[in-house]
């Protein structure tokens, strides 16, 4: 518990150090069909880097040139200044307010006049800035005419340019492209998820199906055995030979002969005496729990890896920035992924309530790390640093693995709950007539 509290305190301290320029975009998309790419910065300058982050939703400029680099707004007015001591924004630039959201919907204040002299206010203490630049986006809700005519093939929409100024004198340009990327078939991904989830959930029935087969076998044997009534009727009508044998003095006087003429009690099936009763519910197979633990661990790792990939795509390269980004923007996928891994370890050691831990962790990772990122199945661009296909696979594993483990664990808990209690130990009871102790079986 002390370690948990210490870790929580450290996380709060890390978050407190985050500055606005490093904060994760609250409106970062879960996916898009438009790819924004930075192709060049001309003329090139050592220590200056510009790239697209958050699936192209923002541009990021890092200035380690030692001089001030200025980003110009939509009317070529001074918009941002990235100085060695931090980032400053011109409150008179309309871009300050239009670029605050990905949609660009903002009410401009009276002070937003690009013709006024710049008035700078500091926004960050590090020479890195990220901003929505609508020159690099497709801003309409309807696709371009060329895309509307054929959505099945990738195509270039336009080239874009963002002007810069270095040292207040030199003019520079950030050039890039905007492309249409056709989305994949989301239905195919969901079909595979359903099949895989049901396959994992089926593991919860493995032991119960074995018990069902055994009970059907016992039922078949019981139905083929003679009933008590037919056995008694046949024994009440002796054959002539048996009557003659019983009337013989030698036969009646021989104990061995009389005992051999009667069937042994152990040779009669129990159903012939008391009727068939189903066997007790079977115990789930012991190998299923380690397999479910493995699936839960894989789903948890997939959740954490996808969260890391999203933060790296958002521009959080260093370890400190990555940790801040995970806590600020991916806290629930990370926590549920780690919880699934912890539940898997709990189950591997066969701790109490292992099935309950797997069920709870599985449904949480399926929802918070899987379903919350399901937009990746229907968009061409995934906010993931590495392969888009890998990102979709990780999300699919989180959903199918988490939901499947939850279903299997729930079935196992139901089978365990239906099992009758073990017989209690023999215990002394009071004899009713005399009050002396006696022994009673708890069976």
TrEMBL record:
Endpoints of the signal sequence: 1-23
Respond yes or no to whether keyword Transcription is given for this record. no
Instruction: Print the keywords alphabetically.
Output: Membrane, Signal, Transmembrane, Transmembrane helix
In residue numbers, the region (Disordered) covers: 224-250, 418-443
Which taxonomic lineage is given here?
Answer: Bacteria, Bacillati, Actinomycetota, Actinomycetes, Micromonosporales
Which ranges does the record mark as transmembrane?
Answer: 189-207, 287-309, 329-349, 356-378, 390-411
User: What name does this protein carry?
Assistant: Uncharacterized protein
